[in-house]
Structure formats: C-alpha cells, structure tokens
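ARCHIVE CARD
Drawer: 12
Card no.: 0347
Subject: one protein chain, sequence and derived structure
Cross-reference: see card 0346
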Amino acid sequence: MKTNNRIVVIIEDSKVISETLKFQLESCLNFTVYTFENAKDGIKFIKETKPDYLILDYHLDHTENEFSNGMKVIKYLKSRNIEIPTVVLSGQSNNEVTTLLINSGVIDYVNKNNGNFNFGVLDTILDYEKNLDLKRKKKLKKTKIRMRFAKIMVLTVTLSGFIAYLSFN
C-alpha cells in the first residue's frame, strides 16, 4: 500500500485500541503507524524518527513511574524540544485534565468511552492536515509574491543601468 510519508506513533497500553487506530490510520489515511504499549519504547522511537503525529493514552502503565501518564510524556518531550502534534486519549472526562492538556499544546483530547473515539482521532488529524495545507499555501503564495517583487527589482535595476548607459553614449 502506498503511504503519504506521514508517520504516527501510538503509545497506548490497550492493544485493542492501538490496533484499531493503527488499522484505520493506515487504511483510511495511508499513514505509517508504529504502536507501543509503554512510553519508554515510544519515546525512544520518537527521538530516532521524528514522527508527524503522536497519539497518546493519558493513563499509562503505572509500573512506569517516570511516564505514568500522558502529561509526563508531553512534559518530557517538550523539555527535549521535541514538538509533535499530539492527540491524547483517555477513558475519563475530567475537565481539569482536559484543560491542562489543551493548554500544554495537544491538538485534541478524545474520550475513549465514546464508542466512536477512533473517528474522533481521524477527524482531528484530518482537520490538522487541512490547516497545515492552508498554511503551506499561504506561505507559498507569499514566496511567489516575494519572487515577483525580486524580479521586478532586478528588471528595474537592469533598465536603470541600460538607460544610464544610453545617456552616456
């Protein structure tokens, strides 16, 4: 299957959830997806590959004290200047946690108790991709305008030089 070169890392201790998301991201969006059941392995992979997206469970394996929740993973990545658009999954609907995560820069917080949580993740990534495309188009348009301006300036200088040359002859 042809991929579109987007890499997604899923750190989720539920194999059923991570495999469901992996299947949908690969089949619907043609992304390359890597799943990890613990944060340490996922973080190691993130450092090596610089993925495009991170889907992160909020409540991770509590035997990993260093990375027992998604907020600790996000803080760790930020402390290493690793910025990845992140979607956090959780089975709880705690407004304090949601606000904390959104303020930390995650692109969305999806409740796993919703039977359609996987579509929430897909919608979030699709919306984010659309916004990236708009930003790229704006940047390209600005670059084209700058190039046109530069060409005009070169023509103006060239024409001025030619006029000066004619006036001395």
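Annotation on reverse: The chain has five helices and five strands. The chain has a mean pLDDT of 80.
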